[in-house]
Amino acid sequence: MDCRPSRTQDPDEWIATCPTFSKPLCEEVREWMFRWEPDLTESINSNMLCYSLKKRVVSLGAFNDHAEICFYRGGELNDAAKLFNHGEGNMGIRGIKLKSLDELDKAALRALVHAAVALDAQPALPPPPKVKREAWPMPPLLAEGLKKNKKAAAFFASLKPTYQREYMVWVGTAKREETQQARLKETLKALAAGKKWAQRKEV
């Protein structure tokens, strides 16, 4: 999506000042939106022409070489006609990049817009549950090093598991022995100085 400041807050002026290539595309899609969902409110946000009911439902972007129709809850819509060609992996916003309207399945787009409006009346889906990562095994090399450095061991024990994991992954994924030893030396020095992994270069 376009995150630049909006060039205007007037939808008519926004259309009038669209790039030459995408202006006719945006004009046509805007006409469709008026006909298909006349109850939607038109506004400008983040340089996009937005259509809202309870919340923003659809927006229209104008670019130098294409136009784009964005569906704010596209990840929840059944895109049977496979219109989405941008942001397919997103749980939320998905888009349709357009260079021409000739090959666009207009009936499918209309159905998608109607479905998006109907979805706007429903609560948003809860975010997917966080996947708990498996605990990273303590590298024997690091365990041995901590036994010999009580100051480093004490600070390591005080760290949250996330910060401990950073050190364990860094030391444990080294392939060559010289790399392992270099990382262990840097780790013990940083831990003894009370530094987290991201701060180890400050020692």
TrEMBL record:
Domain YdhG-like: start-end pairs: 23-117
Matches recorded under InterPro entries: YdhG-like (IPR014922)
Superkingdom field: Bacteria
Name of the protein this chain belongs to: Uncharacterized protein YdeI (YjbR/CyaY-like superfamily)
Taxonomic lineage of the native organism: Bacteria, Pseudomonadati, Verrucomicrobiota, Verrucomicrobiia, Verrucomicrobiales
